[in-house]
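Repro:
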Amino acid sequence: MREEVLIKADADQHSGAEESNRVEAPVLLLPGLVIMPGMTAPLQVSQPRALRAIGDAIRDGSGLILLLPRPPEEAEDPKLPEDLRPEEAIGLLGHIERIAPLDDGQQVVVEGVARVRLLRKTQDDPYYRAEAVRVQVEEEITPDIRELMNRLVATIELYLELTPGLPQGIAAYIRSITSPGQLADHVAFAPELDYAQRYSLLAELDPTRRLQKASALMQEQLERAQIRAHLREEVKSRVEQQQRQHLLRQQLEAIRKELGEADPETAVINELREKLKASGMSEEVLAKAERELSRLEHYGLHSPEAGVIRTYVEWLADLPWNRRTTDQLDLAHAARVLDEDHYGLEKVKERILEFIAVRQLAGKATRTPILCFVGPPGVGKTSLGRSIARALGRNFVRTSLGGVHDEAEIRGHRRTYVGALPGRIIQGIRNAGTKNPVFMLDEVDKIGTDFRGDPAAALLEVLDPEQNYAFSDHYLEVPFDLSETFFITTANVLDTIPPALRDRMEIITIPGYTEEEKLNIAKHFLIPQVVRDHGLEKFGGLKLADDAIRRVIREYTREAGVRGLQRELAQIARKRARQVVEGGGVPPSPDIITADLLPTLLGPPRLLGPQTIEKDTVGVATGVAVTEAGGEVLYVEAAVMPGNGSLTLTGQLGQVMQESAQAAYTYCRSHAKELGIPASRFERQNVHIHVPAGSVPKDGPSAGVAMVCALASVLTGRPVRRDVAMTGEITLRGKVLGVGGVKEKILAAHRYGLKLFLLPAANLPDLAELPADVKQALEIRPVESIDEVLAIALLPAAVSRAAARTRATKTVVKRSA
């Protein structure tokens, strides 16, 4: 059977006890303070009510006073409630040992005598008095209680060992206690216990439960003390290590002085100082760099801030503040380099040669241009930048801005951020090693914007000659001169470039290549390159007949540039390389690849030749458009059906294109008499205009002419010539206005094998950029009004029926030449 402390008390102990145990005395409330039996404590008393209670307790000669703990929240105005809950009615009968006056009250030393239970309040003013009964409990120590006491004593001793600053002799005193209740009461002396924990020990009348509760509280305090001790040991060990390292460094420094050797930290600082002086930076920048270097010297290379400061100073020292290459100003050399690297592109080459000529005459006084190459993918925009750098004798550096959303990518991060670095502009300049490189910013039309800022707005300072001579990066926080840098940007379209940024650049359009140009590029540039890349120089190279190259262009690629053509030629080269290896190094036969061998090397043709309309059709007109991949032919279809005169538009048309369709419909309706259309037809029939490839968004004003032509055709029953392409914006007065992208559109019509192109008269100057072979193969006729367009494009109805009879026995799909 489990042994325990036997509590011997009268049956009426909790209700009132005997008369000899009753006491009626002044009450002193103790907010946030718990005094245990046998404990002597000094109290600072300043409240008038408490001072009167102490005074009366002294005057009646007993010196007894009731001490009642109260929660800390009542510190400002403690009160004795009328009815105390049982768990709040346990207090302490105290004896006043001595009193000492203070400036603002008294210091009273009281000793706890015994636990009491307050029965009732007997007085409110001028101080509290109450009647209480002493709680008397007799204890008997069993073996289990003794074991519990021994464990508690051991826990307290271990706690004392781990807690420095406690008075000596506590452990010996604790070991001398023989009463379980008294031992538990002494746990309340632990400094980390709060009010609730101390009062729980005071209010627990059962010595066994009090001892168990004290053991649990002491075990918790021991665990905290162990954690604190572990942390102290770690800190002590770290401090000792630092002190040891400091002492060793001092000794090492003394040894180096004796040997005449330099300190490594001093050597690093001196090296950085020499680099700063040799960098050629301005006095203002040098002064800032010296201040940062002095901070680094003061903190030392092993301080937490040393890495940030050293990285910043190294960036300043590594920038080419005064390093530049000498421009190659020989026009003949520049022209030869540009021709070696690129076929055609006369406009770009002419602009570079003009810059070299002006630089030759005006010297450095002339401003460096900021060019923007706009064209479809694969036309050589990026490689052209490398050729320009080679022609000028400058270093070349490139960075892509596609998908950049953060302004800090351009201006850099401020040094307050962890891992901060300069922006891409300053990084590119350092990588170039000179302050006047050719700096290419690719994909400037694909810059994004979000909550982190607008990178396009940050580029305004970079690409503005009036500002970039003092470009300030957020990381450097000093001006850097970019005015000598030759900036070249590239884009596929201009629409997504902000107008303010577009205004700072000189736009040079690079349109798609014609078939003849692609043939020459393949023969003189692409094939030699794939031969070198695939190691075929010693095995006969790669020879393709002209008809084979043309077939690759027509049936295996459809693009404005030559990137796809290069991939197809590389695939042929890989097939040849495998044949060489399998043949033991013998060049494969036949020596020249002809068109009929392409299906063996590349597989069946992936693209049919550009298809036109089978025959002259009513309600179908051929228009042209400009996409990111160059020019493209699109067909505008119109149909009529019984209805109430409504207009339906489909094909994922944009707002501008929808307005062009409405303008075309209004023109046909307002000119119905001239076109031979009965006016009542508009009221009895619905009109539907559709542009195929409905999943592709389309927009722009240049389809207006084709829409008028398709509408007039379907309303009059006159077919549209299938070999005619047209472009132009229309007005309600019937005028044809000029549009953009003329060269790309004419090249698309030529690629599709069309014979006649109707061009707005306002765009006649754009024909100067067309290749001669295109002008010869395609008839281009200028038009100023819709009447001219309809007169050329629409056939008489009778001609259509005769032509239909002649074609009734066969279907011909016309392919481009």
